[in-house]
V-type ATP synthase subunit K (Dorea hominis), 161 residues
Amino acid sequence: MSIWSNLGLVYALLGAAVAVFLAGAGSAIGVGIAGQAASGVVTEDPSKFAKVLIMQLLPGTQGIYGLLVGFITLSKIGLLGGGAADLDPQTGLLILAACLPIGIVGLISGKAQGQTAAAAIGIVAKKPEQFGKAMLFPAMVETYAILALLISILAVTAIQV
């Protein structure tokens, strides 16, 4: 059994990998950026730990979304249910394309959300009573990750295997 005889499955697995790896990388970058800002605040005022931790965790959702699309994809092609489906290359490419939105948007929005969360952590550092307002800024970036998640889920599930 060669890779060429399973090219459709290879493309579909690449789609799942793209969703997980890119969105996960975006989350890792974003959580790291926000964590650097959070560490500085906690160094000065340890009582703000809980508030800045929540802010730091926000960019981590993109990785969860990519993982979800990866699981849905693996289930769709039968790898989680026993035997893999016999996919033609065109169907594999469709699945790969369906996974791209959450992968690409997850990468970009994870980093952007980390930067926005770091700025919001700065608000909490100076005015902790403004925590609720500060949360809105990184939450706005989240909107686009959710939209990409929805498109990827709808596209993957709509493909006939």
About this structure: The chain has a mean pLDDT of 95. The chain has five helices and no strands. The CA atoms of residues 33 and 67 lie 21 Å apart.
